[in-house]
Amino acid sequence: MQTAPLAPRKATRPRADALRNRERIVIAAREMFVEYGPEVPLDEIARRAGVGNATVYRNFPDRDALVREVVCSVMDRTAEAAEQALAETGDAFAALERFVHTAADERISALCPMISSTFDQHHPDLEASRRRVEELVAEVMDRAKAAGQLRGDVGVGDLMVVVAQLSRPPAGADCLSIDRFVHRHLQLFLDGLRAPARSTLPGTAVTMEDLRQA
User: Fold this and answer.
1) Taking every annotated instance into account, which residue ranges of this chain make up the domain HTH tetR-type (predicted)?
2) Which residues contact residue 33 at a Cβ distance below 8 angstroms, ignoring those fewer than 6 apart?
């Protein structure tokens, strides 16, 4: 007697509550990594997220996986902010401003250095998020230059360095207490990017490849 072939299993989608728990873990981890550094106990992250320890480990088998997810989510949200601004207004400089201010709000300067030699810097997810951000910012900057909005002697690397420096709290200052200053100083920097240039910059425009080789 012949038996009917087994039907292929349908891939099951994560339940809505499981997705919400994962998002709560990532948000809590981002907040605590910024406040206390990447070595904060995972059970403290679970407590802030309002989930059990088992839920954290079910979603993220180790600390590296959680740190990577947090950094990727931050880069993805900053890219989405620039994309949305560009779609809404068509104004490349407005998109650049949205990216810069969102990057500061997301604490990108505090989180990205966590991807150190102890982590897989070439993990496909991390590479994809990093490439998306770099390509989008390069496109936005090129469009702003073509429109005569952005001075021509700056590169993506210049932007990333200054955003990281201006959104990082000085030694001895609390990260959360300087929020009222960060956006003010970033806007001063953005105004200095506008064309026509008021000065001649020393050296040449810095690319992301220059930063990686530094």
Assistant:
1) 19-78
2) 40, 67, 70, 110, 111, 114
**92 plus 40 within the same structural domain:** no
Burial of 183 (0-12, 13-18, 19+ CB in 10 A): middle
**CATH number where 188 lies:** 1.10.357.10
Q: Which residues pair with 194 in a beta bridge?
A: 150
Structurally, the chain folds into a number of domains equal to 2
Global confidence as pTM: 0.76
User: Among residues of the chain, what percentage have pLDDT more than 90?
Assistant: 35
Cα separation, 34 vs 117, whole angstroms: 19
DSSP, collapsed to helix, strand or coil, labels residue 2 as: coil
More confident residue, 156 or 11: 156
Residue 136 inside a domain? The answer is: yes
**Rounded-to-integer distance, Cα 195 and Cα 57, Å:** 50
DSSP 8-state secondary structure symbol assigned to residue 55 = H
| Best mean pLDDT range from 73-82, 109-118, 141-150 | 141-150
Please name which of 112, 114, 119 lies closest in space to residue 133, comparing C-alpha atoms: 112
